[in-house]
Amino acid sequence: MYCPFCRVSDSRVIDSRSTDDGTAIRRRRQCPQCQRRFTTVETYSLLVVKRSGVTEPFSRTKIVSSVRKACQGRPITEDMLDRLGQQVEENLRTSGSAQLSTHEVGLAVLEPLSELDPVAYMRFASVYRAFESLTDFEDAIAELRSECGEAAG
């Protein structure tokens, strides 16, 4: 890291902190040459590989938008959707992988969405788990009931 004041190529880290949203690290540095202090921000980029092979940066907004469609007509607030988006992003970042497929991102939405709203979960799961028959729906409902502790029927 070059000092922005004297351009020396060395600096000492004095303090490191995560940003509030956990997507970057702020580092307070000091130059050993001129003794001046400066701050750097390091970000962790998470990339999503689409089916076409195109790679693009992860977007929490896209997650919230797709989940919003599954939640139409359900008692879900924008705040709840934002929290779900944040939770999904945090889970994906902690996975340690820098590149994820769109399918992996969709699957990462399923667990928090099942906790948020079972009907929205079924709508979303039918796309991302590629349901092809009524049996797929029945199996998913049985799985959801066993997780929720509901009696079948």
If you average the pLDDT, what whole number results?
A: 89
DSSP summary: helix tally: 5
Largest sheet: 3 strands, antiparallel
**Order of helices and strands, N to C?**
EEEEEHHEHHH
Low-confidence stretches: none
Strand content: 15-25%
Let me know the number of strands. Answer: 6
Question: Biggest sheet: strands side by side, in what order?
Answer: 1-2-3
Rg (C-alpha, Å): 22 Å
Quick synopsis:
This protein has 153 residues and is of the alpha+beta class.
Give short descriptive properties of this protein.
three-stranded mixed β-sheet; 153 residues; alpha+beta; 5 helices; single chain
Question: In words, what does this structure look like?
Answer:
- With 153 residues, this protein is α+β, with helices and mostly antiparallel strands.
- The strands form 2 sheets. A 3-stranded antiparallel sheet has the order 1-2-3, with no helix packed on it. Strands 5-4-6 form a 3-stranded mixed sheet.
- β2 and β3 form a beta hairpin.
- α2 packs across α3 and α4 crosses α5.
